[in-house]
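To close the chapter, one final illustration. This time we ask the reader to focus less on the individual chains and more on the assembly as a whole: which components sit near each other, and how the overall shape emerges from the parts.
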Amino acid sequence: MKITLKSWDVLLFLFILGSLYIIAVFADFFAPYHYDEEQRRNIYKPPDRIRFFDEKKDFHLRPFFYEQKRAKSEMAQRLYEKEKDHPVNLRFFVNGFPYKILGIFSSDIHLFGTDSTPFNLLGTDSRGRDLWSRICYGSRVSLSIGLIGALISFVLGMAFGSIAGYYGKSIDFFIMRFCEMIWMFPMFYLMLTLRAAIPPEISSVKMYFIIVFIMSFIGWAGMARVIRGMVLSLKEQEYVTAARAMGATDLKVIALYILPNTLSYAIVYVTISIPGYIIGESTLSMLGLGIQDPGVSWGNLLADAMAISQITLYPWILSSGFFIFLTVLAYNFLGDRLRDATDAKIRNENRA
Amino acid sequence: MNDSSSTLKNYVLITENLCKSFYKKKGLFSRQSETIRAVHQVSIKIESGETVGLVGESGCGKTTFGRAVLKLYEPTSGRIIFQGKDITSFRGRHLRSLRQSMQLIFQDPYSSLNPRFKIRQIIAEGLYNFKKDLQMDKKSIVSAVNHILQKIGLPEDASEKYPHQFSGGQRQRICIGRAIALRPGFIVCDEPLSALDVSIRSQILNLLLELKNEYGLSYLFISHDLKITSSICSRIYIMYLGEIVEELPSTQLFANPLHPYTQALISAVPEFDAEKRRKRIILEGDVPSPVNIPEGCPFHPRCPKVMDICRKKKPHLRQKDGNHTVSCWLYENQRTEDTR
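The assembled structure is written out below.
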């Protein structure tokens, strides 16, 4: 059976991931409200449903929704009532709060919005902030942390793994024992411990880099181990001996002759490891140890949903969890497919 | 060595009692390690411009010796004198600069070419590594590569192709091209023909001889094909279990082999002419493991002419006549008493 990357399911997941990253990059455009904008009268408002048909089953070309107004509270639950006689039209490419595209071009165009009554696609949170907007902004942290973290541990793993494998002996021994020391601790507790070594009150940007650092520090060990194993076998290849006989320096031998041959495997490994970083960040942030309010990340958004009573009353606050789920699923699926494809390629190469 | 340096200069390569052993741990918790004696006390000399053969069975240490000579393996003991310099202890930068003058052609033209490099890159590998020493720029490297392609009989458009687009013979030409690119004085040919079709062997052999004449190369020609070796080499060393058992001029190889091992090897060369067909000497058993080298003469368990003394004492290389040296008790009987 021929395994290709051009199948509908691969394309579907690529499309999902692609859309998520586009949302992350142009979060200002996709979010109708600023992530910290509070709508005091709309605390825990359920998602507004987009409609095309009104009560009389008449079709409207322009999508609309019914405004929701606070009703009497029952026990602790906040209740909203739809005002069916008061439809609000949804407008596209509206002017809203000003922002800068990619930090350069000024703009105030947003994908959708309303004239007056706020529209909350995924409802609002405990402080009346629009969840969809917050998810758009939160995706910046959550999605980039996976890529950057995986990239750093990729570089570290490649470097240390190839040094250990190529030079062997005591260098190999020390690097590998160090990797095992990192591995020895349960990842979650190591993460908490490293986090505990850092002062709790620091800016969101600093925190972002600290989380990346913590997770790459834990993550490179596995990568190094795999690369070391491959280098051990690759360095016995005759063309590596030939390169040494040709007077190539060790650095050249490693960089040009050995590492390129580990690349296809390394890329698969990195792809499969990205979800780990996303989940790691979410875990830290959810526990209040990572990105903190008013900063947003998908994990941070879940912090609201820690109490079961909140979830039963306001289930829409879990929606950022759905985005985490979708991203992790897409990465795992693509990583698996990538692995199948490279395995098949390696098998074909060996046969030839 | 008492030779003056001027006589040393005539030799491109001299090894003195070169040994290479590998160590392998016996078990997970064992502190002892097994010694695998791949090459033991090998002394050879190669004059400049000479082609010297090294013949032996598979696994006898020929390849290990070839690589130890080039310092691709660190020798365990002994000395290597290359172009009058003792290079045994060379390391790092010094060793790297030596690579310009000594090269290696591999047995397997498939695994010895980096599958990710174009032919242009493969041939220019060495040139790029010594770009500064050779004072070459990109342009001169390109023209050097084209020149080499022409020398090894490949079309110029081959330079943009990858190794898998070539046949075994063409790949071996590329290997040879890569080896001569730096204009070395000495090349170790590690069974360069054994992976090739018989029909292509003569082409490659002719190419090697042409290049030798043109550049004044010296070859250490490692092979197990006695006929080819005797046809291109001036002297031949016979190796058994990492030791030299006989050294003889190639004219003597078929005419007057002395060591029983050499005789057995020669009797195994296929001959179509029924008149010429020799009586086969069938060697019993396998080459002993280099971990447990037999006591006495290493060849005694398989030797058809084994004597008592062979099992107890090891014979030494003795000069028989002229350039013919052999290490066997058969030819030492008159001196047996002295060595005791």
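Chain B touches chain A at residues 67, 70, 72, 96-97, 99-100, 103-104, 106, 108, 111-116, 125-126, 129-130, 164, 175, 178, 182 (CB under 8 Å). The longest helix of chain B spans residues 198-215. With these observations in hand, you are ready for the problems at the end of the chapter.
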